[in-house]
Amino acid sequence: MSEESPSDSQGKIIVFGARQIRRAWVDDQWYFSVIDIIGALTDSASPPKVLVRNETPRAGVVGR
Can you say how many angstroms the Cα of residue 32 is from the centroid of all Cα atoms in its chain? Predict the structure, then answer.
Protein backbone atom coordinates (compact mmCIF):
# COMPACT_ATOMS: atom_id res chain seq x y z
CA MET A 1 0.00 0.00 0.00
CA SER A 2 2.25 2.83 1.19
CA GLU A 3 5.36 3.17 3.26
CA GLU A 4 3.81 5.40 5.93
CA SER A 5 4.29 4.27 9.48
CA PRO A 6 1.19 2.67 10.99
CA SER A 7 1.39 4.82 14.12
CA ASP A 8 0.89 7.91 11.95
CA SER A 9 -2.08 6.49 10.07
CA GLN A 10 -4.16 4.43 12.50
CA GLY A 11 -7.83 4.49 11.61
CA LYS A 12 -7.27 6.66 8.58
CA ILE A 13 -9.47 6.59 5.52
CA ILE A 14 -7.81 5.97 2.18
CA VAL A 15 -9.20 6.95 -1.20
CA PHE A 16 -9.63 4.53 -4.11
CA GLY A 17 -10.87 6.44 -7.12
CA ALA A 18 -13.58 8.67 -5.68
CA ARG A 19 -14.49 6.19 -2.92
CA GLN A 20 -13.28 6.20 0.67
CA ILE A 21 -12.12 2.92 2.23
CA ARG A 22 -11.92 2.57 5.98
CA ARG A 23 -8.97 0.75 7.51
CA ALA A 24 -7.57 -0.09 10.93
CA TRP A 25 -4.09 -1.11 12.12
CA VAL A 26 -4.39 -4.10 14.47
CA ASP A 27 -1.61 -6.43 15.64
CA ASP A 28 0.86 -5.21 12.99
CA GLN A 29 -1.59 -5.73 10.10
CA TRP A 30 -3.96 -3.51 8.12
CA TYR A 31 -7.63 -4.48 8.08
CA PHE A 32 -9.86 -2.96 5.40
CA SER A 33 -13.64 -2.65 5.23
CA VAL A 34 -14.91 -5.30 2.81
CA ILE A 35 -18.09 -3.29 2.19
CA ASP A 36 -16.04 -0.22 1.23
CA ILE A 37 -13.83 -2.27 -1.11
CA ILE A 38 -16.87 -3.86 -2.80
CA GLY A 39 -18.38 -0.41 -3.24
CA ALA A 40 -15.19 0.93 -4.81
CA LEU A 41 -14.70 -2.03 -7.15
CA THR A 42 -18.32 -2.38 -8.29
CA ASP A 43 -19.26 1.31 -8.14
CA SER A 44 -22.47 0.14 -6.47
CA ALA A 45 -24.79 2.46 -4.55
CA SER A 46 -25.54 -0.44 -2.18
CA PRO A 47 -22.40 -2.55 -1.54
CA PRO A 48 -24.02 -4.65 1.23
CA LYS A 49 -26.62 -5.90 -1.26
CA VAL A 50 -23.86 -6.82 -3.73
CA LEU A 51 -22.08 -8.80 -1.01
CA VAL A 52 -25.24 -10.65 0.05
CA ARG A 53 -26.24 -11.37 -3.55
CA ASN A 54 -22.81 -12.90 -4.28
CA GLU A 55 -22.57 -14.87 -1.03
CA THR A 56 -26.06 -16.39 -1.13
CA PRO A 57 -25.98 -19.95 -2.54
CA ARG A 58 -28.09 -20.36 -5.65
CA ALA A 59 -30.06 -23.45 -6.56
CA GLY A 60 -28.27 -25.53 -9.16
CA VAL A 61 -24.89 -23.85 -8.73
CA VAL A 62 -22.13 -26.42 -8.20
CA GLY A 63 -18.83 -25.72 -6.46
CA ARG A 64 -19.87 -23.15 -3.92
Answer: 5
